[in-house]
Amino acid sequence: xxxxxxxxxxxxxxxxxxxxTFNKDGAAFRSEFLTRMQNRLxxxxxxxxxxxxxxxxxxxxxxxxxxxxxxEVFDDWLAFTDMARAAELEHKEExxxxxxxxxxxxKQAVDKENNPFGPGTISQIFQxxxxxxxxxxxxxxxxxxxxxxxxxSQSGEMYAELNRRLVxxxx
Length: 171
Known about the structure:
By secondary structure, the chain is mostly helical. Helices cover 69% and strands 0% of the residues.
């Protein structure tokens, strides 16, 4: 309960407004998230999450140059990277096994950048769906932190189940 952990009344009101928004638009958010996941799973050949969104790491460009980065772009990239990398580290072995099996199934190399079930893909889709809600940047950032914890704690079971089903299917 983030609203109970904040300091000022204005910040608390912001969290209550976000809760109201989610209560009102939560079903649409869930639907948007699931639709985006289904669409991603239907895409072949598999492209990296960054290539699908047309993003690169802040400061990364084709020519050696210095550039200023929009703070919001950097914050989004940082939140995405934090969510994905935490889950990747938490479930390293399961993900490696899944990527090897998916490489056989899709007849192309599958790694953390293009795994349709990988934390990077799930994190990116979460951020995209979250963008459909009218949250300010602080609420969106806090939502990503909470999602990171959920992704880390619950995705291991999904990866174990996917690996089991692929093994049972002969992959």
